[in-house]
Amino acid sequence: MIVYVESNFLLEIVLGQEQATSAEALLDLAEHRGIDLVLPSFAFAEPFATVTQRERTRRKLGLDISGILRDLKRSAPYYSEAAIVESAIAGLASIAGREYAKLNDTSQRLLAAAQLRDIDSNIFAQALAYQTRFGLSPQDSIVYAVVVSDLQRRLPDPKCFITKNSRDFDDPDIVTELQRYNCRLFFSFEDGLRFCTP
């Protein structure tokens, strides 16, 4: 079974989101060679940018609140509330380190278990066509073009593409094109996991 995923697969695990358990189970299946996990290499970098942006946003929030806290701590009636907020800011700061550690660990596991697919000039040209044909964003069109290019080289065994991005990929024409290559489209890792482990 060949399973295509994109950046939201890695982010789901790293950020511990609602479908992290199913995504983690898919990664475990790939590690034990129960499935062939395929990821466009283009999508591998996005989670690093996302985690970095989240850390910057929290750091900025912490700096903004620090000025307010200085004022509150000078007022005796608000000192205990200021201490609670100060503790929360310290907690926010520690999250970044844990997220980066989880991202690095999960990335190493993914690189060892999955197959990364690169972009070339033909795939990029197809991605540009997909932007017009399906109205996909540049990033989504590249991911989709990489998936379709890889599908074209595969035997007609069952495959699936799992993405949480239903807003962009939930298009009957995309579903039809994927079906031509015996590939199902799922918008949840739970559904994809059920498909891979009947």
Structure description:
The N and C termini lie close together (12 Å). The protein has two domains: 2-44 and 113-196, Rossmann fold (3-Layer(aba) Sandwich); 49-109. It is an alpha/beta fold and 198 residues long. The protein has helices spanning 7-14, 20-31, 41-44, 46-73, 79-113, 121-134, 138-152, 166-169, 172-180, 189-196, and strands at 2-4, 36-40, 115-117, 159-162, 183-186. The chain is built from ten helices and five strands; from the N terminus they run βααβαααβααβααβα.
Provide a quick synopsis of the model.
By secondary structure, this protein is α/β, with parallel strands linked by helices. The chain is built from ten helices and five strands, in the order βααβαααβααβααβα.
Name its key features:
2 domains, 198 residues, Rossmann fold, alpha/beta, 5-stranded parallel beta sheet
Sequence stretches where pLDDT stays below 50 over 5 or more residues: none
H-E order: EHHEHHHEHHEHHEH
Return the domain count.
2
**Helix count from the secondary structure assignment:** 10
Record field, number of beta strands? 5
CATH topology of the largest domain: Rossmann fold
Taken as a percent bin, the fraction of beta residues is 5-15%
Tell me the overall shape: elongated
The CATH architecture name of the largest domain reads: 3-Layer(aba) Sandwich
Largest sheet: 5 strands, parallel
Level-1 CATH class name of the largest domain: Alpha Beta
Overall mean pLDDT stands at: 91
How far apart are the first and last residues' alpha carbons, in Å? 12 Å
Q: Over all CA atoms, what is the radius of gyration?
A: 21 Å
- The order of strands across the largest sheet is 3-2-1-4-5
Structural class: alpha/beta
Helix content: 55-70%
